[in-house]
Amino acid sequence: MSNKTGFLTFAGPISPDARRRAEQLCRQQATPEKGEQVRLNTLSVSFVNSYLQCMGFETDLEASDSWNAVQHLLMDVADLSLKNLGSLECRPVLEGEQFVYVPPEAQSNRIGYVAVQISKSFREAKLLGFVKEVSNDVLSISQLHSLEDLLDYLEYLTQLNTAKLADDSLKVNNNLVNLKQWFENIFDAGWQEIESLLRTQPAYVASSVRSTKGDLVSRGKLIDLGKLLTQQAVVLVVTLTPDNEQEMDVIVEVHPTSKENYLPPNLHLTLLDCDGASVMEAQTRSSNKNIQLEFSCEIGERFSVKLALGDVSTIEDFVI
């Protein structure tokens, strides 16, 4: 690696596997000129791939056009696919040359362009720098930015993608219930006062809450676990008690409706974390009047509650 006047580059050997792959693709081409083009492209992509993997970025060679033998027959491609980010073009340049050729087919649908200097022996390479975009077929090496800028740029794209995925997840999940808003008397559709759902049962006053702080809120929702011609409804009750400024105590209970005395046997109540993994579970037997789960969550934390009866199940998603 060299660092002159703050300009970061990187040099190193090209792996034997990369050289074998390049030689194999080279021999499949119709002319020697096309073969050398494919060889240089393949070596460039392989070298950038190894470098970015060492830097902690996820790449996907198999998804890259440059790793497809058929695409080489049709185009001059040297792209490297980065997972969830896009394609980075890895353009080869020989030692002593001052310009990088960027074919028209590579001048769009790219997140950036890296210049890769390939040695005459095809055994070593050097990353000269990068640019975000090009406007014509010829790119001067003097226009390149440092590799440090490339790493910062890819990290920025990664953060953008992470934020977008989180935002998309919230948008897709239209049923995400914001429990913190319950303390502001803001309730999602379907979540009702307990007494309206359990009319014939004793008044529900969150008897299972062991906290003595008194600041709690409860709501219930009617959940139908029946099939097309059979109704099998239960009442899901969620009770919240602030533990401190950063945590909330949560109790999730399931009760029979006012028409039933007991919950159906083999009803499963499962707590899922934000990744969908099971954290804890309760199950009814032959004569349960209710089942419950107790846990604590940090403010901003997401979790889900799954109710399953036989082959019918439903999931309610929450955020504190």
Layout of helices and strands, plus pairs?
Elements: E1 3-4, E2 7-8, E3 10-13, H1 16-27, H2 32-54, H3 69-74, E4 79-82, E5 86-94, E6 99-101, E7 112-118, E8 124-131, E9 138-140, H4 147-172, E10 177-178, H5 194-197, E11 217-224, E12 233-242, E13 247-256, E14 267-272, E15 278-283, E16 291-298, E17 302-309, E18 312-319
Parallel strand pairs: 5-7, 10-18
Antiparallel strand pairs: 1-2, 3-8, 4-5, 6-9, 7-8, 11-12, 12-13, 13-16, 14-15, 14-17, 17-18
How would you sum up this structure, described in words?
This protein has 320 residues and is an alpha+beta fold. The radius of gyration is 30 Å and the shape is elongated. A hairpin with an 8-residue loop joins β11 and β12. It is built from 5 helices and 18 strands. The protein has 2 domains: 169 residues, no CATH class; 143 residues, Sandwich (Immunoglobulin-like), CATH 2.60.40. The strands form 5 sheets. The chain has a 5-stranded mixed beta sheet with strand order 3-8-7-5-4.
